[in-house]
Amino acid sequence: MHLSLDLPDAPATQKLGIKLGQILAPGSVVLLNGDLGTGKTTLIQGLGKGLGIEDLIDSPTFTLINEYADGRVPLYHFDLYRLSPAQVPSLNPELYWEAVEVAPGIVAIEWAEKLPYSPPEVLILDLSYQGEQRRVELWAKGPLSMAALQALSEEDQSFQVGLSC
Fold first, then answer.
1. Which of 27-31, 39-43, 101-105, 110-114 has the lowest mean pLDDT?
2. pTM, entire model
3. Can you tell me whether residue 9 is helix, strand or coil?
4. Shortest CA distance to 80 belongs to which of 52, 121, 49, 110?
5. Among 34, 90, 86, 37, which Cα is nearest to 65's?
6. φ/ψ (deg, to 5) at 95
């Protein structure tokens, strides 16, 4: 399943994150790809707001993983910018999406293209600039992600540019 959205500015990007935070189920994994400045961190800040997280959410570029436990469900925010694909396995990200050592939550991974493997259940967001505005392509793999994408497309038609299965 696929959805394309135009995001005219940073507040629209954050609004999309808020909506995702309201509809994503525990166990969801969100993979964010895109160049610098395309809105990955802005979207995750909105995701945190949608989950009810009051802490400041910033990019964990130097700490690599930030954990926010005070929302509807925990948010585990990874930033792989400074890592090579060969270094990523040392973070053991699967422990987060499998909820082995942490409470089930939502895993959001910036620079996910550096992830050498991913879970079978993911929501992939490819962010880019189209002229002066951002564009996001959302791809769902697995029932949790497909349900979230379907709910997003039904909830707010003002976001919708194109939806295909």
1. 101-105
2. 0.89
3. coil
4. 110
5. 90
6. -65, -25
Separation CA 104–CA 99 (nearest Å): 5
Show the tokens assigned to 74: 């925990």
Predicted pLDDT at 52: 97
Specify the number of domains making up the chain: 1
Q: What is the CATH classification number for the domain harbouring 78?
A: 3.40.50.300
Per residue in 116-129, pLDDT (tens digit) is 888 889 999 999 98
The bridge status of strand 29-33 relative to strand 122-130 is: parallel
Residue whose structure tokens are 């996910």: 112
Axis crossing angle, helix 143-155 with helix 10-23, rounded to the nearest 10: 120
Q: Which residue segment(s) compose the domain that 15 sits in?
A: 2-164
Q: 19, 152 in Cβ contact below 8 A?
A: yes
